[in-house]
Fold:
Amino acid sequence: MLSSLYVKDFAIVEEVELTLGKGLTVISGETGAGKSLLVDALLFLGGARADAGMVRHGAERAELSAQFQLQDDDRALAWLREQELDDDLSCALRRVIRADGGSRAWINGRPVSAGQLSELAEQLIEIHGQHEHQALLQKPQQLALLDAWGRHANQLGEVRTQALNWQSTRKQRDALLRQASDPGPQLELLGHQLAELEQHALSPNAFDELLAQHRRSAHALKLVETCQRVLTQLDGDDRMDLPASLRHLAHDLMRQAEFDPRLSEAADLLESAAIQTEEAALRVRSTQDDLELDPTRLMGLEDQLARLHDLARKHRSDARELQSKAQSLREEIEQLQAAGSAVAKLDAQLEALQHHWESAAKQLSIARRASALRFGQAVSEEMSLLGMDGGRVHVQIENNTDMQPDPMGAERIEFLVSTNAGQPPRALRKTASGGELSRISLAIEVAALGMDAVQTMVFDEVDTGIGGAVAEIVGQKLRRLGRERQVLCVTHLPQVAAQGHAHYSVRKQANDGVTRSALHALTDTSRCDELARMLGGVQVTDLTLAHARQMLHDAQRKD
Structure:
């Protein structure tokens, strides 16, 4: 819901702030006072092309901003979250139009394009009048309105599901088809890569063992020298036989242990040390015997490691993962070889999904055709009540020429309108004047009351060319619409203005040779005065005042 609108230096408006609530808000004023400028401001906030002519003379720029309050289930809120432009349940639109024709736009303080502004505005507000861009003139919006009115959500959901499944399967099939069309070169390349890996790739454990062998070979000379030096110390000649020396010392201690038993423990330790020294010498000697000073073997190991590292770089992998890479290549080769049969399988799935979609689309088409007839009758009845006797609406249904599954169904629709009896119906966008178009839009909205997701509606020139009882009925319809939606209506008829839940007056003033337009919120008293002016012209009489009070009383009494 639109909660406030701020306009500065826009056309003849110097500065205006409009606070809005629920229900029907009417804006009145003399011809040329600037009533429709507020509607124009909303159009520009909705992404309309910037027009330097709308900047007030002498100003550098025009500033427009609007504040909306959203609900958790609003489509606009979902869009804001998807675009990462959300700010809790509030939505602020702002646009600046410069005198040179340039413009900038913001949503919740973040810069956006005019296209983004337009996308969001379509979900926030509907403007009905003589504006070419209004949503109701667009075929997709007309189709959505018919589906909402006919309560086709279940049938439409099934059609959309089947269409999306078909599209997803079609993408898979096309991708496989591109692979299967000429797999020869790809298979040859993959086969060569696989043969190379199968010849040289090692398991992670084998690669680690290869690294260990290389380290031993590279340090073989130093290892041999170290082993020889240790063995010389452990069991060299008779003068340097460490185990024998330890046993000799242990024997000397044991001979003296009869005099001090504590020495026997030391003797045991020396005997154990002698045994461990002998064991160490055996292991060092065994290691020394296994060591080879073989430069040729070292070069072979280095060549093998270099080849593995080259393969790893080639396949953008780690050397330990080359066998896994080989398995991936095997699977890819199998997929390519099986692509032909996979395409055939997907073709069969596509045929089945096509059949499911056609069945669901047929049910939706039946429902749409039945709803279209009833909807046309309902809108035609509302048009008659709004002073368009003989006018009728026909919902034209056309089958899609492209029979590929479409999420929106097998047909498109368009609202055709005849404003007078005997005239052939024409497309809504090509029909009628601004006032007639507004009344037709009002008739459609009233007929579809509660079905439209947009919470704020604006009607401009809805009362052009009517008066008397018809004008009062139009006002009543707007007030009824205002019970379900927020409605803003620009009017020059007292019968319509009296039906408003809130009333603003626009007045044009000339000071120092400069014309300015000002907006005033009306109290009950000033509202009667304004209605009296609209009834009687410049001169307000007791009679017109009494009539104005009666109109207000009658309008409020019906709620």
Remarks:
- Residues 185-334 form one domain.
- Residues 254 and 260 are 9 Å apart (CA to CA).
- The two ends are 21 Å apart (CA to CA).
- The first strand starts at residue 2 and ends at 10.
